[in-house]
Amino acid sequence: MKVCLHAANHWPTRVALLLLTAFQALSSYAAEPALKRFEFSELHMGVPFKLVLYAADVQVANAAARAAFDRVAALDRVLSDYMVDSELSRLNRTQPNQWVKVSSDLWQVLSRSQKLARETSGAFDITVGAYVRLWRRARREKQLPSPELLAQARAVVGYRLLELDAESQSARLLKSGMRLDAGAIGMGYAVDEALKRITAHGIKCALLDASGDIGVTDPPPGQRGWKVAVSPRAKDEGSTFLTLSNAAVTTSGDALQHVDIAGKRYSHIIDPRTGLGLTTQTASTVVAGNCTTADSLATAVTVLGPRDGLAFIEKTPGARALMVVANHEGATKRYMSRLWR
Ligand code: AMP
Ligand code: MG
After folding, report:
1. Using an 8 Å Cβ cutoff, are 223 and 213 in contact?
2. Is 158 in the pocket of ligand 1 (CB under 6 A)?
3. Which of 259, 267, 270 has the most ligand 1 atoms within 8 A of CB, as the residue to mutate?
4. Which of 69, 316, 97, 296 lies closest to 195, judged by CA?
């Protein structure tokens, strides 16, 4: 009874509040300028970065796009393994056992990589660079790396050979000749960071596609999400359509980067346990809450294979995956994590 009286006493106030809120919503809606769609494209990290965003005017759109692309260019100077003076390349040249304080971006990438390496028992391994170098040469020369060179590389690969100190945000390499390679995670990190710059410009709806590493924020006006087509193996095998908001999707696999030698196809993704390019033809599409996660997981599950890979995805909150595996005759089989189905 007391509660009823209490509510009755406040009834007119509540109605007035509701009306006020509705009025405020309507007036802010009326005051909000219509959003227009803008598209941009620039080459970064060796691939086209395509940006779609919704903004009130061209000045805001241009400023946000400039900030996003500048952030990607700055991250390339940190993470590139092609630029000899990138922060990562300089770290690769330090004396063994010497602690080096790293930038906060490199710290993020290294610590995320090491966490995933531990969780996947080294299927994902940022120290894989010495193998990557051999397989890049194999792709150019169409010749397998020799057993001697593979053995030399094996001595300087292994995530336990990279040590991190969280307190001082420092890293050290335990062996000389080690080469860290951020190729499986850096692009995803760049997409996340670029989208943060766009959001900081007051833009809520954006999509950034770094040639298959795709991140999105809020849906375009009036829509449920961004419609993204993923073609895990090849466009002619049909696409799967996803509707995404505040999420990311990445596909990893040998579809574009591989070398055929003596009837076998070797992927640019390497099994760090053998040093060999993967020969099971797999394309893995991963959706996750951010692109750093989607990018690194897509590579990791490709190495792990459908059984272990999808079991790992199902333990990762917010992640889902589709893996398409081709057999020797070219027939494909699809595997999906529970949340994908
Ligand atoms: P992605 O296209 O994202 O799957 O990344 C592939 C790239 O990551 C390769 O070109 C290498 O630079 C690097 N990479 C290859 N194998 C691995 C691995 N097992 N773990 C981490 N990085 C790898
Ligand atoms: Mg990746």
Report:
1. no
2. no
3. 270
4. 69
The answer to whether 283 touches 249, Cβ cutoff 8 Å, is: no
For residue 160, report the distance from its CA to the centre of ligand 2, in Å: 20
User: What's the predicted TM-score (pTM) here?
Assistant: 0.90
Pocket test for ligand 1, best of 135, 159, 251, 269 (most atoms within 8 A of CB): 269
Q: Would you write out the chain's pLDDT as a tens digit for each of its 341 residues?
A: 333 333 334 444 444 444 444 444 444 444 567 999 999 999 999 999 999 999 999 999 999 999 999 999 999 999 999 999 999 999 999 999 999 999 999 999 999 999 999 999 999 999 999 999 999 999 999 999 999 999 999 999 999 999 999 999 999 999 999 999 999 999 999 999 999 999 999 999 999 999 999 999 999 999 999 999 987 776 556 688 999 999 999 999 877 778 999 889 999 999 999 999 999 999 999 999 999 999 999 999 999 999 999 999 999 999 999 999 988 777 899 999 999 98
DSSP 32: S
Ligand with an atom nearest the CA of residue 303: 1
Tokens 């219509």 sit at which residue? 34
Residues 256 and 275: their CA atoms lie apart, in Å, by: 20
